[in-house]
Design goal:
Elements lengths: L1 H7 L3 E2 L5 E2 L19 H6 L3 E3 L6 H11 L6 H4 L1 H4 L19 E3 L6 H16 L2 H9 L4 H14 L6 H14 L6 H7 L36 H8 L8 E6 L2 E5 L2 H18 L6
Antiparallel strand pairs: 1-2, 3-4, 5-6
């Protein structure tokens, strides 16, 4: 009998915590019951880290956490309530903007809530530093508003080099009482990313419609990285009110509406010639 107990001690706890008894070399009650155990291969397939790129929206982060932790879709979003995230009061419990882009380690103890907390704590560390708070105050903003501006910069700037200029356009428009008219805020409301905005889109009834609504959107529209945050509190000097990326590597900033219209027409011509169907 001793032999059987030593075999029995090979019982393994599967990842989901169910005990599976493996009968090795013994026929149990005349029927072999196959208990599907996670193979070593499947266990090793669970990620050991998760990369969150700059500019991802919260829902992209939730989906990625679900997949990395191999939990059912929607689990991470549901875990928000019990995650007790350390967010600024303005956020109203919504972590958009505070899921800091970085590489996060994953181990057997990692849960959706623990991973979201790690991201928010990282953001609070990066955004709570004195130069950030001082930079926000210098521009008459609180840090949450600065993160919101950084998220628009992250979504709108074609290159890192353009970030400071995009930041300045946002400030110039806010100071002149002009609507921001940023397609990225509309795209956020519509849960898409596209270069084609129709006049129907600009009539959308949403607090994120910066064509119709004045000021900043109510929350960040993405999770910005440090370069975008740096640009948000250090806009470069300039009088620009408009910009458009006419073609890759060619973003044009101007204070002249007519010049901007010509740039937009050139953008439209380039788009028609390069892709017969609307690009996404």
């Amino acid at each position: 009998m001793h032999m059987h107990t030593s075999r029995r001690s090979r019982v393994r706890l599967t990842r989901r915590g169910r005990i599976a008894l493996i009968a090795t070399g013994a026929v149990v009650a005349g029927t072999a019951v196959a208990v599907p155990l996670l193979s070593q291969d499947e266990q090793s397939r669970r990620a050991t880290s998760l990369v969150i790129p700059e500019g991802w929206r919260a829902r992209q982060v939730y989906d990625a956490v679900d997949k990395a932790l191999q939990v059912p879709a929607g689990t991470t979003r549901k875990s928000l309530d019990k995650a007790a995230l350390k967010l600024p009061p303005d956020a109203g419990g919504n972590p958009e903007g505070y899921l800091f882009p970085a590489t996060y380690p994953i181990d057997a103890q990692t849960t959706p809530a623990s991973l979201l907390s790690f991201m928010v704590n990282t953001a609070q560390d990066k955004f709570g530093r004195s130069q950030v708070t001082a930079g926000a105050q210098r521009n008459a903003l609180n840090v949450y508003q600065a993160v919101t501006i950084a998220s628009i910069i992250q979504a709108e700037a074609a290159t890192k080099a353009d970030m400071g200029k995009v930041s300045r356009v946002i400030y110039n428009r806010l100071e002149r009482g002009m609507p921001l008219q940023m397609d990225s805020t509309l795209n956020y409301a519509l849960n898409r990313s596209t270069l084609t905005t129709t006049s129907k889109d600009t009539k959308l009834d949403s607090p994120y419609n910066s064509y119709e609504r004045m000021g900043l959107p109510p929350t960040p529209i993405a999770n910005p990285g440090q370069d975008a945050m740096r640009a948000a509190i250090n806009p470069v000097p300039g009088d620009w009110l408009y910009f458009v990326t006419v073609k890759p590597g060619d973003t044009r900033f101007t204070a002249d509406h007519e010049a901007h219209q010509r740039n937009v027409e050139e953008f439209n011509r380039n788009r028609m010639s390069t892709s017969p169907s609307p690009s996404d």
